[in-house]
Specification:
The complex is a heterodimer.
Chain A lengths: L1 H28 L4 H5 L7 H11 L5 H13 L5 E2 L4 E2 H36 L4 H15 L2 H15 L18 H38 L2 H8 L4 H30 L2 H6 L5 H10 L3 H29 L7
Antiparallel strand pairs in A: 1-2
Chain B lengths: L5 E14 L2 E14 L3 E5 L6 H9 L7 E10 L2 E2 L5 H7 L4 E4 L3 H4 L6 H12 L4 H14 L5 H4 L9 H13 L5 E5 L7 H18 L2 E6 L2 H7 L2 E6 L2 E7 H6 L4 H8 L50 E4 L2 E3 L9 H8 L1
Helix pairs in contact in B: 4-5, 4-7, 5-7, 7-8
Classes of the chains: A mainly alpha, B alpha/beta.
InterPro entries (chain A): BPD_transp_1_N, MetI-like, MetI-like_sf
Subcellular location (chain A): Cell membrane
Family (chain A): Belongs to the binding-protein-dependent transport system permease family.
């Protein structure tokens, strides 16, 4: 298992190098650069702009720029954000806790809701309760998240006033107090619910269908023939099988924790990574764009690895030597 | 034979499946007994209702459309048809247990052999977990698994088909049941393993003193194992008797045809004997007349109009065929009156 993990990590290195080249090339290919966004060309001497370009190394050949950037990364230096006037690591570091809070909250909601709804619907298929859950699922699947987000803001923030509509923290709270953490949680709650809708619906449906399918299996008949009570058949025999695909998906979800939700964060103007990515693209802050994209790639790769390892842990048939 | 010797009495069992609002009977009016410590073989082609009959006894029919419509299943004199699932759970695995055709899928793939072995003992006894585990290991040894201490920590996919069937047998005998129902326990196994498994069932049957209801379509197995034989065709019992009379004095044309389709060493034939046609499907079952008439070499015009009943030609030998007077409904009515 350890050897397998190490091998997988080693394989990631060439993949990451390839990704970094592609990402870097794409960022450079964006029309314009940080200077064209920052400086009013009609108000500045072209010589000055040219001089600044030369100074920042923007006129160097692509491979030289890439080499300089890659060398920086190896020393944990992702460059500077021209827009935010700080190191990229700092800009991302400010946003990352917000995104992680949002994602973890959303994942927690997703798994808890999907587990209980899926288990109930799978055990009592084709009953009123099951139809209710399925109806809810299809609703959650069918409504695009940005529409749901707008409706959620309208109802729960404006009409009912239960949740704040924007931001990640109330004004005037001191960091470290109980009030501060509650305010953080309250700001993350609504986007987390909307963010988790789609996955909740799909995971509920996965679990339900898998339970129904497994209930027909021969081993269930064997368990019944042994006189095992129905509760134990469902909670031990069937659930232990049906939970496998869901747990594996958890690995991929871990990848998305860091990625956050571009659309949801933007709609809620929630200061997270996704929102940072969008504004950075808009303002040609290529250092930030490259760093976030690379971070997402790493998260996805690590998530895949965790998914594969989880498979081995939970399914004895796929245990890796 | 006195009533006390009867372990299981099936009386006029009708088991049907609801398909598209209509009930189709896979088992129609089946009656027979299993005595204590007796091996009864149920014989018939695929689709004859053998498995459905055995699942009816265990209350393991598919819940959404299978049901027992009429009839009684008396186990130790008590009707078990009306019992609730919870009440059945006290009987299943303890007094009646069952092994199935497919050992490859009959065990839960993600639970250890030990867990699945322990479960049956935990369901029916009040002994500690450590005791249960010890018992499981000794049971596994009893069915000829020498590495029992390791096997309990392994998963089903690590065992061969024969080993899994041994595990199934170990589970089935864990609580020393009165009756073991074995639904084609060797069909999915290699020929060499088949003999071992049958030998094991026979040996345990003698050790434990339980009755065995063995469902098979292998007449070689029947000759080897059975005390009594019940021949089923299209959901009905067509003949039942002790094993010798079935083999040496078969009455029903279907039984004769089954026996005739066994190739013999001393005969030299080009083409194996078969019974022409197939068992009618549930939806195409003839309403009146003999259900075997279409395939019967001795069929007469009357066979399609008179529905034969099961009647005794002599003590302990019953046949459902109008060739034998006792099977004609009218005459039987006379006898009764």
């Amino acid at each position: 298992m350890l050897l397998y993990t190490l091998r997988r990590i080693v394989i990631m290195i060439p993949i990451l190098i390839m990704i970094s080249i592609v990402v870097f090339a794409l960022a450079l290919a964006m029309p314009g650069d940080a200077l064209s966004g920052q400086i009013d060309p009609s108000n500045t001497k072209p010589e000055y702009i040219e001089e600044m370009r030369e100074q920042l190394g923007l006129n160097d050949p692509v491979h030289v720029q890439y080499g300089r950037w890659a060398a920086g990364i190896l020393q944990w230096d992702f460059g500077r954000s021209f827009v935010h006037r700080m190191d990229v690591t700092e800009a991302i570091g400010q946003r990352l806790p917000n995104t992680i809070l949002l994602s973890v909250l959303s994942l927690l909601l997703t798994y808890v809701l999907a587990f209980f709804m899926g288990r109930y619907a799978g055990r009592h298929p084709y009953t009123i309760g099951d139809y209710g859950i399925q109806g809810l699922n299809y609703l959650m699947l069918a409504i695009p998240s940005f529409v749901a987000a707008i409706f959620a803001i309208f109802f729960f923030s404006f009409q009912l006033g239960w949740f704040p509509a924007t931001g990640s923290i109330g004004s005037g709270v001191t960091p470290g107090t109980m009030e501060y953490y509650l305010s953080k949680l309250k700001h993350a709650a609504l986007p987390a619910i909307v963010l988790g809708m789609l996955t909740t619906a799909s995971y509920t449906q996965f679990l339900r269908n898998d339970i129904i399918e497994n209930a027909q299996k021969d081993y269930v008949r064997t368990a019944r023939a042994k006189g095992t009570p129905e509760n134990k058949i469902y909670n031990k025999h069937i659930l232990r099988n049906s939970i496998i695909p869901i747990v594996t998906l958890f690995g991929f979800d871990i990848g998305s924790i860091i990625g956050g939700a571009v659309i949801i964060e933007t709609v809620f103007t929630y200061p997270g990574i996704g929102e940072l990515l969008i504004t950075s693209i808009g303002r040609r802050d290529s250092a930030v764009v490259i760093a976030i994209t690379l971070m997402l790639s790493v998260a996805t790769l690590v998530g895949n690895l965790i998914a594969d390892l989880l498979y081995g842990v939970i399914d004895p048939r796929i245990r890796v030597e | 034979m006195s009533n006390n010797d009867k372990l299981l009495e099936i009386k006029n069992l009708h088991t049907g499946f609801d398909i598209g609002g209509k009930t189709y009977y896979a088992v129609k009016d089946v009656s027979f007994d299993v005595n204590k410590k007796e091996v009864v073989c149920i014989v018939g082609e695929s689709g004859c209702g053998k498995s459905v009959m055995s699942l009816s006894i265990m209350d393991l029919l598919p819940k959404h459309n299978g049901k027992i419509d009429k009839g009684q299943i008396l186990f130790q004199g008590k009707d078990i048809v009306p019992l609730t699932t919870n009440e059945m759970n006290n009987i299943r695995g303890k007094d009646i247990s069952m092994i199935f055709q497919e050992p490859m899928t009959a065990l839960n793939p993600v639970l250890t052999i030990g867990f699945q072995m322990d479960e049956v003992l935990l369901n029916h006894t009040r002994i500690s977990k450590e005791e249960v585990r010890k018992k499981s290991i000794s049971l596994l040894k009893q069915v000829g698994i020498s590495r029992a201490e390791q096997i309990v920590h392994e998963f089903p996919h690590q065992l061969s088909g024969g080993m899994r069937q041994r595990v199934m047998i170990a589970m089935a005998i864990a609580c020393q049941p009165q009756l073991l129902i074995a639904d084609e326990p060797t069909t999915a196994l290699d020929v060499t393993v088949q003999a071992q498994i049958l030998e094991l069932i026979k040996q345990i049957q003698e050790e434990v003193g339980m009755a065995v209801m063995l469902i098979t379509h292998d007449l070689g197995v029947v000759a080897e194992m059975a005390d009594r034989v019940v021949v089923m065709y299209a959901g009905q019992v067509v003949e039942q008797s002790d094993v010798d009379r079935i083999f040496y004095d078969p009455k029903h044309p279907y039984t004769k045809a089954l026996l005739g389709s066994i190739p013999r060493l001393e005969e030299k034939i080009e083409v194996l004997n078969t019974i022409k046609g197939i068992v009618p499907s549930l939806k195409n079952m003839p309403e009146t007349g003999c259900r075997f008439a279409d395939r019967c070499p001795e069929a007469m015009p009357e066979c399609r109009t008179i529905t034969p009943e099961l009647g005794e030609t002599e003590k302990g030998h019953a046949v459902r065929c109008i060739l034998y007077d006792t099977s004609r409904p009218a005459e039987k009515a006379e006898v009764q009156s």
